[in-house]
Amino acid sequence: MPADSTAAHVPAPVPAGSPLTIVGEFNAPQVTGVAVAPGGKIFAFSPRWDYNPTYPVAVVGASNTLTPYPDAGWCMWNDSVKAEPLKHWICPQAGYVDKQGMLWIIDPAAPGLKFTVPGGVKLVKTDPKTNKVVQVISFPESVAPRHSYLNDVRIDLQNNYAYLTDSGTGALVVVDLKTTKSRQLLAKQPSTMPDKGFITKAQGKALYDPMGKPGQFKADGIALSTDNQYLYYRALSGHSLYRIKTAVLRDAALSPAQVQAAVEKLPDAPACDGMEIDSKNNLYLTNFEAGAILRRTPEGKIETVVQEQRLEWPDTFAWDPDGNNIYFTTSAIHKTPNWNKGVGQPREPFRIYKMALAK
Fold it and tell me: What are phi and psi for residue 174, nearest 5 degrees?
């Protein structure tokens, strides 16, 4: 376990009339991702960063219990299984439930955000009904280099593609789900890199690593428009927001310059970690800077949906299958040892929240 400050944490107040319901809270492990399958099964994703989760992918049960998913074997990663990097969760970051109810899990396979484990970077399709792995797609080093960190994923069943962000390189990655071939796009381009000079802050605290360097996070948040026509994406460290036509991403005949020319820069929006889109193409943002959930209308207006002191680094979104409730995690990244000279700071428990949204 990492070092934690012994200072007592004073719990943040719960505002009267808060629209949020806590569906899971954990002192450890840190939860970054969430996904909700048909029937209401909730999944939590815990990468191997400061904490070493026993169940890096888990089903959230009553009383904050975690059950390994798809089984305990997949959740094991130690010397005894290092020869089988495609059969174990190494550092799973996030998951996404597609329109057919299948859960896709992205494993950037980079424990401690250092280097990828050779042969371990993968996108795994699972069936929540049977708790079985259906497909494992591995990424070659040419697409997911040693410094890569595949961060988030969206599945487009209309065109049979997966779209991912790489926050280690600063890139997008696309996967043809029929052939399982993958390509890296927009690597180290302005749209996948931090805004120049941007200082990443959460609730007033600037992030500096153990060497005193400011935290600079690359392509991270991602959202797919309801009609699968546009992919919205951005670097975490910055206010720049972009979108690109998915048809461009799928066209292997286009040159890097042609792909770059197709990027659309949208008006700036507050920094966020996760993004998601509703049926009316409102774009939701987990705004860690202010501890808030924001909504950007199709016209570009930014609205605050909820802002609370206890929202310590709202991280990743997930819809429930009927689209009535949005779920999100709080990962308190700015309170973890890496950004506090090796000593974790007093914090709220890591949580999964649920919020009903008016139709």
Answer: -120, 145
Q: How many domains does the chain have?
A: 1
Take residue 139 and report the two structure tokens written for it. 């990424």
**How far apart are alpha carbons 289 and 271 in whole angstroms?**
7
With 0-12 / 13-18 / 19 or more C-beta atoms within 10 angstroms meaning exposed / middle / buried, residue 143 is buried
Q: What is the CATH number of the domain that holds 171?
A: 2.120.10.30
In which region does residue 264 sit, left (phi positive, over 0), alpha (psi from -120 to 50) or beta (all else)? beta
Q: Whole domain around residue 102: which residue ranges?
A: 22-356
Instruction: Please state, in angstroms and rounded to a whole number, the distance separating the CA atoms of residues 287 and 122.
Output: 28
| Alpha carbon distance 165, 176 (integer Å) | 15
> Residue 170: inside a domain, yes or no?
yes
**pTM above threshold 0.85:** yes
> How far from the centroid of its chain's Cα atoms is residue 197's Cα?
24
Q: Identify the DSSP state of 208.
A: B
Per residue in 330-339, pLDDT tens? 999 999 998 9
**Start-to-end Cα distance in the chain:** 43
